[in-house]
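4.2 Preliminary Data

To establish feasibility before requesting continued support, the project team ran the inverse folding procedure on a target of 276 residues. The structure was first converted into the token representation described in Section 3, and no sequence information of any kind was made available to the design step. The complete token record follows.
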């Protein structure tokens, strides 16, 4: 805990995390925690690994890299099938024709998922290039680009034109959760609350449940920035994003870690520890 015995927690500021943090910002748990918001989920993982926060909403792959980490059960950012906000964008070509990929490294989970899809399911590996999440710059450098969060959602919404090299190109997007479901039949968990404490310092399930009662308000707040209509924003937050883990998503997470180990993306598949 911090010096005034108030839990310190961290999360990204993407629209899909808003229902999980609404209670801390505006609801019944306002003033009971110190909340650090950052654009990059990887930053929250860094804070957790350094013991600078008591809990953080982080990419699930962090459970394989952060020592002594425990997962808070059930609460997540996931998708049963299509997520819309984690995608590979190409210059109009099929994934089978991609030879270079610019990676938004804000989420290690999504980066490794991209590599698994290419290695395990498409049967080849393109050249990987780390990049900032700017679609024009990424597609100038590469055949395809991995985008996550609101930048990805904005690309899907904005239409199908962009710049590649020195000419306009047709942008085609491939939903990573949809690809995962197509090849495995499972849902996918992108992020979960995690802690390194012996006990969970916050009731994250109650915070989620309260936030989900304010989806309409959240949608109105994010809609102008992203460019979705309010109704489409509500559909994204309620129809695409899952905030509780079902059996398909749990199986998908287990398979994801198995394939990450098989493909040399993690050293060992650590046993997951939960805290209640």
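Position-by-position output of the design step:
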């Amino acid at each position: 805990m911090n010096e005034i015995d108030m839990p310190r927690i961290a999360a990204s500021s993407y629209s899909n995390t808003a229902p999980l943090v609404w209670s801390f910002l505006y609801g019944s748990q306002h003033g009971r925690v110190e909340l650090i918001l950052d654009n990059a989920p990887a930053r929250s993982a860094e804070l957790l690994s350094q013991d600078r926060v008591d809990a953080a909403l982080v990419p699930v792959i962090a459970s394989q890299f952060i020592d002594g980490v425990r997962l808070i059960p059930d609460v997540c950012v996931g998708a049963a099938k299509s997520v819309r906000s984690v995608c590979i964008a190409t210059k109009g070509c099929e994934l089978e024709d991609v030879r270079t990929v610019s990676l938004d490294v804000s989420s290690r989970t999504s980066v490794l998922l991209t590599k698994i899809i290419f290695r395990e399911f498409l049967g080849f590996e393109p050249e990987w290039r780390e990049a900032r999440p700017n679609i024009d710059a990424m597609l100038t450098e590469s055949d395809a680009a991995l985008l996550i969060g609101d930048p990805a959602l904005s690309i899907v919404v904005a239409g199908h034109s962009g710049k590649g090299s020195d000419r306009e190109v047709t942008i085609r997007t491939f939903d990573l959760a949809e690809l995962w479901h197509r090849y495995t039949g499972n849902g996918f968990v992108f992020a979960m609350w995690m802690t390194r404490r012996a006990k969970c310092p916050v009731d994250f399930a109650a915070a989620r449940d309260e936030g989900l009662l304010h989806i309409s308000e959240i949608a109105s707040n994010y809609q102008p920035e992203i460019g979705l209509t309010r109704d489409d924003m509500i559909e994204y937050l309620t129809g695409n994003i899952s905030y509780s883990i079902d059996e398909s998503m749990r199986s998908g997470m287990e398979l994801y870690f198995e394939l990450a180990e098989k493909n040399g993306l993690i050293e060992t598949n650590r046993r997951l520890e939960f805290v209640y």
